[in-house]
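testing teh design pipeline on a random one, pls ignore if ur not involved
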């Protein structure tokens, strides 16, 4: 225990030059916790191996470690990274990258005050929904629309508003799990509505819904099977049949679209992704979809449809608990207007999804040439992600990496730990960088990271 005597007094450590820049925060609880944990680590090390060095060496060592941990705590944890996975809407990587123009608008309206809930014309209190409500009405050709925190919240809110205390009829083929513990039956239970399952896993007919309608039926629900695809002997009523049944029996119809596209999808090769506009046109009373999937905007849940039902949703006390803030509204209104203006390329997710294969090929080939023998341009298949267009592949181009002496997992890890981190894809025993999700402006930085990788 002789070595423990070398441990310096705390004050010596606090006065060391390594901590000079942190002097004003060293008495904060988080700093005290860091200091005491570094001291106890050093104490443990010293009891395990006696040679800890001189007291002044120990002082410097402790101060350096405290400074490192303080610096780590003061750095933002949420960081930019380069998505080379090719998955355009990657839930773990923040889903849709946001338009520069939306960020400019966000800065302009959020660094100071705004008319978030203020009617400038009338000089009175206004509603925060108006900023995106009208644009959504125009875009979807619907009567009314509101926005909540995400689509999971939208589903909960709609089921609670229209289904609580009664039965909601849904097909057995649509009891989907979206991931991150979002399951239709669980949300249904929390909403206070009872699930009434009809049909079979692969086939549900309109007559199945019809036969299940009773005195307790509050709502007919349809859920888009976002992240899987059923093929073979399958059947599902058309939107028109579904909406028609509700109208005929005077029961509201609700469709959870998941991604909910608001423009054509032929240009990205995913023609069967359901369109929010089609659902409204077919007469579905209320729909909901995500803001950060194929819409390409911020995290949000959009609820749209007939005014009567949207108004009921808005009056639910839960709506206040699930409402969005000005940051979401600012970004979302920019994205929605980009659709109105027909500027799909202003939305990064759409620009990436629409990038022609030939353009990606040229970029990948030029990049491989600049890097040299470590990279080879190859043709790829990428996925849309974010629970959109399951089972469809978008042709893409990228580079396969090969550094002599470095294994696949080593390359993947070094890329992931670089600054900024690069998230690659491992396929057929190769580390691959898919150019569909790499911004052209990131290529120089990426090249530099790869040049220093080995
Ligand atoms: C993604 C998805 C949700 C959840 O949406 P979030 O915006 O991620 O909360 C709900 N339903 C379906 C069908 C989905 O695809």
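output:
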């Amino acid at each position: 225990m002789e070595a423990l005597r070398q441990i310096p007094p705390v004050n010596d450590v606090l006065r060391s030059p390594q901590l000079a820049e942190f002097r004003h925060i060293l008495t904060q609880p988080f700093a005290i916790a860091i200091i005491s944990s570094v001291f106890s680590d050093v104490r443990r090390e010293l009891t395990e191996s006696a040679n800890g060095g001189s007291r002044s060496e120990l002082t410097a060592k402790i101060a350096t470690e405290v400074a490192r941990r303080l610096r780590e705590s003061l750095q933002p944890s949420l960081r930019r990274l380069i998505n080379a996975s090719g998955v355009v809407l990657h839930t773990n990587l923040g889903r849709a990258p946001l338009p520069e123009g939306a960020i400019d608008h966000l800065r302009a309206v959020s660094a100071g005050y705004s008319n978030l809930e203020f009617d400038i014309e009338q000089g009175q209190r206004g509603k925060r929904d108006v900023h995106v409500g009208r644009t959504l009405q125009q875009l979807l050709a619907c009567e009314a629309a509101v926005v909540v925190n995400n689509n999971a919240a939208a589903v909960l809110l709609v089921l609670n508003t229209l289904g609580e205390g009664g039965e909601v009829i849904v097909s057995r083929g649509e009891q989907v799990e979206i991931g991150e513990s979002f399951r239709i039956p669980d949300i249904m239970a929390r909403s206070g509505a009872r699930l009434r399952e009809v049909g079979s896993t692969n086939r549900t007919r309109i007559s199945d819904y019809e036969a299940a309608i009773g005195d307790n039926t509050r709502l007919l629900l349809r859920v888009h099977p976002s992240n899987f695809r059923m093929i073979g002997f399958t059947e599902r009523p058309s939107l028109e049949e579904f909406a028609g049944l509700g109208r005929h029996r005077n029961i509201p119809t609700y469709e959870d679209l998941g991604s909910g596209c608001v423009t054509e999808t032929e240009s990205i090769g995913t023609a069967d992704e359901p369109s929010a506009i089609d659902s409204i046109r077919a007469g579905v009373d209320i729909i909901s979809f995500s803001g950060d999937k194929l819409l390409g905007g911020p995290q949000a849940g959009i609820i749209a449809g007939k005014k009567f039902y949207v108004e009921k949703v808005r009056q639910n006390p839960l709506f206040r608990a699930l409402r969005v803030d000005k940051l979401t509204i600012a970004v979302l209104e920019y994205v929605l207007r980009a659709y109105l203006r027909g500027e799909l390329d202003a939305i990064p997710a759409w620009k990436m999804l629409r990038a022609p294969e030939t353009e990606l090929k040229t970029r990948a080939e030029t990049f491989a040439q600049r890097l040299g023998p470590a990279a080879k341009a190859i043709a790829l298949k990428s996925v849309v992600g974010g629970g959109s267009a399951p089972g469809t592949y978008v042709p893409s181009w990228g580079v396969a990496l090969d550094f002599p002496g470095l294994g696949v997992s080593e390359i993947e890890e070094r890329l992931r730990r670089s600054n900024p981190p690069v998230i690659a894809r491992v396929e057929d025993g190769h580390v691959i960088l898919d150019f569909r999700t790499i911004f052209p402006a990131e290529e120089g930085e990426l090249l530099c990271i790869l040049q220093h990788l080995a």
